[in-house]
Amino acid sequence: MGRQQLHIFFFPMLAHGHMLPILDMAKAFSSRAVTSTIITTHLHVPMFQKAIQNSVDISVRGITFPAAASGLPEGIESVEMVKSEEMFAKFFLGTTKLRGELENLLEELRPDCLVADMFFPWASDAAAKFDIPRLIFHGTSTFAMSVGESLRRNRPFDGVSSDSEPFIIPELPHEIKMTRGQVSLFDRKKHEVETEFSKLFKDVKASDSNCYGLINNSFYEMEPDYVEYYTKKLGRRTWHVGPLMLCNNDADGEKAERGKKSTIDEDDVIQWLDSKPQNSVVYVCFGSVSIMTRAQLQEIARGLESSGQDFIWVIRKCVDEEDSEKWFPKGFEDRIKANGKGLIVNGWAPQILILNHESVGAFVTHCGWNSTLESVSSGVPMITWPMFAEQFLNEKLLTDVLKIGVAVGATQWSRVSVEVLKGEKLAEAVARVMVGDEAVAIRARAKEMKDSARAAVEEGGSSFNDLDSLIRELSAYR
Ligand code: UDP
Questions:
Q1: Ligand 1, atom 6, residue with closest C-alpha
Q2: In 3D, which of 387, 392, 384 has the Cα closest to residue 365?
Q3: DSSP 3-state assignment of 312?
Q4: Which residues cross the membrane (predicted)?
Q5: Which ligand 1 atom is at minimum distance from the Cα of 258?
Q6: Using CB atoms within 10 A as the burial measure, which of 80, 164, 211, 265 is most buried?
């Protein structure tokens, strides 16, 4: 490994929503002659290895996730495999045990910088031991980071009388309203009794202000007020280098296979989309972690059918999946097969490929940040259906600030859907985004945002320049 080149360690959380953008980030750095080493646990090494086979400057090193020592069943090695809240806490605490092996690798390879996930607050101390800067990767919008700070500092939800009464989030560049039911349970709780888990989350929040800086998968033109707010008002050093997925190459199939093998043949999906008119298909996918109940899935099926639009629907799993009884509304599958209106993907879809197809006219999304950016980069308007994490905050950016999304009306923060939104609500939101004057205006704004996203990563664009200045600074630090 040539010591002339800057060498960066990338250490993502064990979840596709974090590993995929970090993989893209390593590719973006390697396109500027930076050497990258991705650190992950053994289960995920093959996924990364497959994805970097064309990149000489990126390598992967595997470490061991101590599932049993963390009180988890053997083999649990990803947030996506975690089923209960109790396992969730054990899993996150388990990741703190990765520190020893990370430090061994820092010692062995002596990189110039460590880019580590926000969920690894202890990584700052690990980097300090080797006298290298630690950058934090959040994997979300600067908007969500700004709103989250205000919510935690001001606790405006303490003053409302119910989970459904709206309140205004103070100190922000826009008037943003939300309800207590939409606020993350971690932020709502006061944690009067500190546990190991609540301490870890406190450390996660605190580490933003005691690290070298933050590297965000976003771009200035998408949220300029919040980039200013976060960097100037909150005083955080931040580089915006996204949308990182745009560094992927069609020719190498990097867009077709991301993270997991699709459970549907890519050519079949494209052929099906080719047979549909422009902007006519609604794509529905709720990411890799959230879980829908059968009751909710039934309502989605009803809503999609009654919207009258063509659709591709990715179904990950439902919470009572052991129950083998069919949960689709009566005759649903036969009808959509017969009239060719819908395509069901049970498992994993080639999302970027689908979003980039000109027949796709809207995306029903849980507002995970990667899905959001992928939709923005493809110019596809969104129907927003947040569930947990910071997804309700991303929704506000899309519906209230950028106005490129319409909310279905989710009100309860939960990883497993706890409310059952009626199919009619989905059909109404689909109609608003797909037909009429409002739809035309939303589509025009989405198209503008796509153009700025692409311009940001091209030579001379805001993200291109931010990445350059970060590399220059890290080289000088060395
Ligand atoms: N994804 C995909 N196919 C699927 C589901 C998800 O390729 O069927 C990808 C998606 O393109 C995105 C990532 O997985 O890059 C999900 O990240 P996001 O932040 O949207 O949501 P999360 O899964 O973290 O909730």
A1: 287
A2: 384
A3: strand
A4: none
A5: 7
A6: 211
Compute φ and ψ for 80, nearest 5 degrees. Answer: -65, -20
The residue whose CA is least distant from atom 2 of ligand 1 is: 351
Please give the helix or strand (H or E) that residue 247 lies within, else none: none
Among 117, 208, 310, 466, the one annotated catalytic: 117
Give yes or no for a contact between 394 and 367, defined as CB atoms under 8 angstroms apart. yes
Q: Which ligand 1 atom is nearest residue 139's CA?
A: 19
321: pLDDT confidence band, cut at 50, 70 and 90? low
| pLDDT reading at 3 higher than 70 | no
Residue 393's closest CA among 140, 93, 94, 46? 140
Please calculate the CA angle 199-148-474 and round it to the nearest 5 degrees: 80
Q: Model-level pTM?
A: 0.95
Q: Determine the atom of ligand 1 nearest the C-alpha atom of 316.
A: 8
56 three-class SS: coil
Do residues 388 and 312 touch, judged by C-beta distance below 8 A? no
Q: Which residues in 62-82 are b (16+ Cβ under 10 Å) and which e? A: bbebbbeebebeeebbbbbbb
CB under 6 Å to ligand 1: residues? Answer: 15-17, 20, 258-259, 285, 287-289, 314, 348-349, 351-352, 368-371, 374
Band (pLDDT 50/70/90 cuts) for residue 256 is: low
Question: What is the position in ligand 1's atom list of the atom closest to the CA of 259?
Answer: 7
Nearest-5° Cα angle at 107, 104 to 109: 105
Looking up tokens 């959380």 gives 13
Q: Using DSSP, how many helices (H) and how many strands (E) does the chain show? A: 18, 15
| 220-233 as b/e: b if 16+ CB within 10 A | bbbbeebbebbbee
Residue 268 has pLDDT above 80, yes or no: yes
State which of 13, 27, 370, 391 you would mutate to test the pocket of ligand 1, scoring each by most atoms of that ligand within 8 A of its C-beta. Answer: 370
Residue 117 is among the residues annotated as catalytic for this protein: yes
Which protein residue has the closest C-alpha to ligand 1 atom 11?
351
DSSP result, 315-342: E--BTTTT--S--SPTTHHHHHHHH--E
Ligand 1 pocket check: which of 137, 371, 378, 417 to mutate, most ligand atoms within 8 Å of Cβ? 371
Burial 417-451 (b: 16+ CB within 10 A, else e): beeebebebbbbbbbbbbeeeebeebbeebeebbe
Average pLDDT over residues 32-56: 95
Told to judge if 138 belongs to the known catalytic residues of this protein, a careful annotator would answer no
Ligand 1 atom 10, closest CA: 371
- What domains sit in the chain, N to C, each tagged with a CATH number? 7-143+195-247+456-477 (3.40.50.2000), 261-454 (3.40.50.2000)
Cα separation of 476 and 468, whole Å?
Answer: 12
Segment 56-77, tens digit of pLDDT:
999 999 999 999 999 999 999 9
